[in-house]
Structures are given as structure tokens and as C-alpha cells.
Amino acid sequence: MESIAASLGATKGSFYWHFRNREALVRAALELWQERATDAVVAELAAIDDPVARLRAVLAVAFEDDEGGRAHAALLASTDDAVVGPVVRQATQRRLAFLVELFVDFGMPPAEATHRARLGYGAYIGWYSLQRAAPEHAPADERDAYVAHVMHTLTAAAAD
Question: Widest CA span of the chain, in angstroms?
Fold first, then answer.
């Protein structure tokens, strides 16, 4: 709490005015993250009728926020935490369900749509995990080419 308060120019006591303890602060932050980074994004993107345009928008939103992507990768590394884990799992399930539905809208059978959803989500998580662990393998100046390759791979005709 002290380091968070100091970085915001606040006192530790002011946090306890709003949050009972550190866990309450973490829960509130996770709820806000889920609302902004999953629920609101899914609602906005679901309104796009054309599945190709929707996938392009998904990738644009996912890869435009490097700080958010790295934060998500960090949250994934904390899924063993009793507070963090359930929220991250719920957000991941919601995101994957949205992606599966998107690929079904492409006309893919559910099994193929599920594989494409996992591949796409894995490409996102992988990029930001690399930025954290080995940034030389995920340089910012190569992101657009990577996203274009992901788009091409995800929309390629299903293999027989």
C-alpha cells in the first residue's frame, strides 16, 4: 500500500478511507480491469456485424495498448493467487467465448472455431509475455507486421 500511495502522491491512510485492506483494493482494481478490458470491449466489438471487420477490430484493440497487454501478461502469471485467479479466469473464458463465436460467424464448425480462438488469444498473450521476458523478440517496430501475420493466419482457409 505504501508504494502505491507514494506513486499517486497520497498517504497510506487515504487508501484505508476507501478500502478496508489491500485485498479490497486489489479486488476493486480487478473488477475495474475486467469491466474496462473485457466486458466493455466485448460489448463494443460484438456490435460489428462483419466477422472480418470484427476480427480486425479485435486485433487492433488487443495490440494497441502495450501497457495493458503487459499488465494482462503479468496478471496471467498471478493466477495462483486466490483473489487474482478467479477474475483472470473469468475474463479469459469470456474473451475466448467471444472469439469462438466470432470464428463460428466466419462459418467455421465449433471445433475449428475453438482452435482459431485459442490460437488468436495465444498470439496476443504470447506477444506480451515475450515483451516482458525477452523484449528483443517482440520489438515494437515489428508489432504491425506480427498483427498482420496473425490476421492472415487466423483467416486462412481451414485445413482439410
Answer: 62
| pLDDT tens, per residue, the chain with 160 residues | 565 555 445 566 666 667 778 788 888 889 999 999 999 999 999 999 999 999 999 999 999 988 889 888 889 989 999 999 999 999 999 999 999 999 999 999 999 999 999 999 999 999 999 999 999 999 999 999 999 999 999 999 865 4
Structural domains in the chain, CATH included, are 27-155 (1.10.357)
Place of cell 515494437: 140
Please report, as a single letter, which amino acid is at residue 154: L
Other beta carbons less than 10 A from residue 136's beta carbon: 7
Instruction: List Cα–Cα distances, 18 to 14, 15, 35, in angstroms.
Output: 7, 5, 20
User: Mind spelling out the 3-state secondary structure of 83-110?
Assistant: CHHHHHHHHHHHHHHHHHHHHHHCCCCH
Q: What is the pTM of this model?
A: 0.86
